[in-house]
Design goal:
Distance between the termini: 19 Å
Number of helices: 3
Shape: elongated
Number of strands: 2
Structural class: mainly alpha
Radius of gyration: 17 Å
Strand content: under 5%
Length: 90
């Protein structure tokens, strides 16, 4: 099956928009925790803007990035599949 570049791009854009809104809500509701996770994902202490390379940061960042990538891939494929199915039915 040939993928539609336009539909896949649209699905990716919608996915990232949804995740950006979710991230914004998490930062607004849990600023301290969001700052910690963001710092771990970037190997950085966001309060001092210094590199912070620790094993705990590696693990938290790894888990956070892995979950983010998995959710993004799932959401992108789900939206893409719905767009493809909608094209066949509509």
């Amino acid at each position: 099956m040939k993928l539609s570049a336009n539909k896949f791009a649209l699905a990716a854009a919608i996915s990232f928009a949804a995740l950006w809104v979710l991230c914004t809500l998490l930062v607004a509701l849990l600023p301290s925790q969001a700052m910690h996770v963001s710092g771990a994902m970037l190997h950085s202490n966001m309060m001092t803007w210094q590199w912070d390379m620790r094993w705990s940061g590696l693990l938290v960042g790894l888990v956070a990035w892995s979950i983010t990538a998995g959710v993004t891939a799932w959401l992108t494929v789900t939206i893409y599949n719905r767009l493809i199915a909608g094209g066949r039915n509509g």
